[in-house]
Queue: 3 jobs
Job 1
Amino acid sequence: MIADWETFVARHSGRAEFDLGLVRPGDTLRVVTDHTDYVFEIVEGAEAQLRCSRPDRPTGRVRISGCGFAFSTTFKPGRLFCGGRLEFTFLRNDMPARYRTTSINAIVHSHRGERVADLERF
């Protein structure tokens, strides 16, 4: 079991990562999975307003946590990477809830006022 986990981590560790510490208030972070586009308007730090391309996904104020490796409990806080699963927290009926997406296909970060050609894509 450990050898499988080590192989998985080694395969995914060479991929480009996005550091959530780079976002500023007003930035937009778009995370694309097979089924959903998640668009985060950064409020402060990891706090964001979330809009989704699907009505059955969480929306509103969320806190971006980081990225998980596949279906394991292994987690990398403060970082996102393609192939990983975005995790964020939010309030559902005034109770904290955690949401983890399917695998990330693309991450697009833009600073407030940037042109489309200037976007960082991971």
Job 2
Amino acid sequence: MNKQSLLLHNNKIIIFTTTTILFLLFVLPVVMLIPIKMVPANDQPGYGDMGRVSVYGLRQFTQEFLSTDTNLMAIGTTIKNPNLKNKKIIKFNLYDEKNNLIREVKLNGFNIGDGDFVKFVFEPVPDSSQKKYNFTISSPEAGEEEILELFLIGPTDTVLDYSYDDETKLGGIPMVTFHKPDSRWETVKLVYLNLFSKLLSLDSRRI
């Protein structure tokens, strides 16, 4: 192989490698992201050191929070199911600012592990941006030996206050709200914006 042929061969390898890298970085993720039906509005806050509350029987948990985007369609949080004993129905009820019940979700404790991140998914709430909501988590058929435990944190911009055992306090559970984008391409845009913001955050910490 002469020098010119070798140079041409090397150029082809460089072009192929560059094209493959660009495809893996930009095109493939777009194809994979299109089926995504919802995106998180925030990262899950750390658990903190404020303890936990037990949910069972008549002891339900109520959380007030702020939705920061439209089309609210899921709430996610970490739930402990100690020794996997709770195999009863877990109820999630979502209420608007006027305390009207607007969404209901039922899960089975059989499907929840000890420390799983659990999503309560429901039909999107269209006009949910910058509005306050309340939700309750309960397991009315569970006994004291079938408790579920929720972690507690202090108040944030979106986690406002909670009620438990006839007391209302600031803060609540480390939760994530999920929202349905207006289009699939909106999903791709939001995910990339979130990725780039995290990369910029990491760079700023290194400085």
Job 3
Amino acid sequence: MTHRRVEVDGQSYTLDPREVRTSLTDGPPMLWGFQVRVLDSEGRELGVKTCFVGRVSVQFRDKDAPDAPIDVLAPVLHELAFEKIEARLREGETGDEIVFA
């Protein structure tokens, strides 16, 4: 899995994504969901961001990713979620919440 270390206002955080889950459908997946743990510099969990990423966002970033194997798809999903989470951290929100990307 892709982890990311971020620095916001002198504070260091690690974003730790969990397993990706796909929407159930007979057609192509339209939505992916997963949790991202927000850890402080000592590895303590500060909050969990439950992330939902839609097919259109993924296609906009990488047109082939929505139908690609998970090793290609997951980094795109994580990057989209990390961008939203970093923005929330800059706003001071480290706690649990739902994030749509």
